[in-house]
Structures are given as C-alpha cells and as structure tokens.
Amino acid sequence: MDGAALAQRLREETAREVEELGGLGLATVLVGDDPASHIYIRLKHEAAESVGIAPVDRRLDADVSEAELLQLVENLNGDDEIDGVLVQLPLPDHIDEARVIRAVDPVKDVDGLHPFNAGQLYLGRQTLVSATPLGVMALLTEYRVPVAGARAVVVGRSPIVGKPMALLLLHANATVTVCHSRTEELARHTLDADIVVVAVGIPGLVSADMVKAGAAVVDVGMNRTDAGLVGDVDAGAADVAALLTPVPGGVGPMTIALLLANTVRAARYRRGLLAFPRP
Ligand code: NAD
After folding, report:
1. Distance from the alpha carbon of residue 205 to the mean position of ligand 1, in angstroms
2. Going by CA atoms, what residue is nearest to atom 6 of ligand 1?
3. Is the per-residue pLDDT at 109 higher than 80?
4. Can you list the domains of the chain with their CATH numbers?
C-alpha cells in the first residue's frame, strides 16, 4: 500500500480546500529538545506550507513551567489566525500532559486527543480524530480492503494510535481485537486476522509466520536503527500478506496528510461551515 502516493493526492485536495477557505493557520508547540520531536515538527511545518497553511512555530525551553505552557495554549486558543493547535508529545516529566491536552480548545484539537473529541469517537460521532488512524482507514479504503465483517487485530493501545484505530475499525463494522504489551501468544491473534495494524515501536515484532495468507497488514511503527528507518513488521511478511505498507512511505506520509486535512476540518468548524457539537 503506497502511502506516499495517496498522501500526495490528499495533499493536493487539501491545498484546493485551503485556497477556497483562505488563510489557515496551524500552531505547533514544542517543549524541550527531543531530536525526534524536532524532526516531526519540521516535517509538519513543511507540509503545512506546501498546502498554503501558515505554520506558527512556538518553542519553549525544557524547564518551562506548566503555567507558562498553559498560558501559551490559551493564547493560541484565542488567536483568530489559528485554526489548529498541536502540542508535540512527549512533554517533560514535570508537566502534566493530560492537563495540557485538556487545555487545547476542542475545536482546534487537530491531534484529536482532547477528552471531548476522544469521547465523541468513543460514541461513534467523529469530530477531530488522531491523524495516524485516519490515515490507516484512508489506505484501507483506497486499496478496497473489506472492513465490515473482517477480523481486525490492532497491536498497541496508545491514545494516539492503537485505541482510536480500534474504534475506527469497530465503527466500520470490523470485529476488533486489541493486543498490547501484556497479550500472551500474540501470533494466535494476528494469524486469525484479515487486517493487522501494528503500532508498537519494536522492529520486527510481527514476522511473516504471524500473518495469515492474504491479510492486509499496516505497519505504523517507526524505529530508527543503524539500518535506517524500519517498522514493526518484518519485511518478509510481504510474501504472505496480500497488502503491506512499507516503512518509510506507508503510514508516515498519510499521518501528515491527515493532519493537514484535520486543520481544514477545524477551520470549517470555526467558520461555522460544519457544526461542532460543543460540550
Ligand atoms: P506507545 O509507546 O504509546 O504505545 C506502544 C503500544 O505498544 C502500547 O500500547 C503497548 O501496550 C504496546 N506494546 C508494547 N510492547 C508490546 C509487545 N511486545 N507486544 C504487543 N504490544 C506491545 O507508542 P505509539 O505512540 O502508539 O507509537 C507506536 C509506534 O508507532 C512507534 O514506533 C511510533 O514511532 C510509531 N508512530 C508512527 C506514526 C506514523 O505516522 N507512522 C505515528 C505515531 C506513532
């Protein structure tokens, strides 16, 4: 499944929508100097610019107080030029991540992490949803993978990938199993699945002998190794699966494309073009 190609098409569509709406802004907040976070922020800014969304770059030192960070988020919430607010995670240990996530105005929460948006997803009333699982659903649709009635296994249960992924698949009428760090005999579950989505962060966790012949396998993992960027699924799985996403060039570009699409959605909410079900 070629995520790079589909992402490119989605970005072209987003660029047209941005032009129609005129003047969108996406603010990112980066705290500290985590090297991976710096790369992600740079990629998001470049992508935003490429579709005509103005990136607003806010950076704070690692020792910033929680109060200062909350004040910055509050200012971005109130800023009329800004449609989306994204706080790059992880945050330093002295900051209460959940409190910061709650501080983002739900209508600008382009990461879909605010409890209001997460709750809407739980109820099957999609508002703003995390970009990575949205990107996976778009890939499954593009490659005409039947989801309704399929057995889907999601490996990983994080609030940003695994859990929203499981809910999206469930709402699309898959029969969903969620596996995680305490799951015993992972292969028993994955071998039974028509769709496997792996979001763990362990290179090669899912090998060819853990995949059912003809399954669709989506590798969300991004692991930096001496051999370069690799996913969580062993490359040999391609021989067994009907469809597999490569790393890089699979889910990564889709995540960025759907973040931009989320920013357009947030802009529509704020401009009253879409109804946002305020709490
Ligand atoms: P996380 O660390 O928050 O969650 C990892 C999950 O894996 C946990 O729920 C844990 O229970 C599970 N897990 C750990 N060990 C396991 C094991 N042995 N067997 C089964 N499950 C196990 O990570 P995350 O933020 O969800 O990210 C997961 C991976 O996806 C990472 O590699 C991350 O870099 C990548 N990621 C990629 C994109 C993208 O756009 N491609 C986006 C987000 C995350």
Report:
1. 11
2. 156
3. yes
4. 7-110 (3.40.50.10860), 131-253 (3.40.50.720)
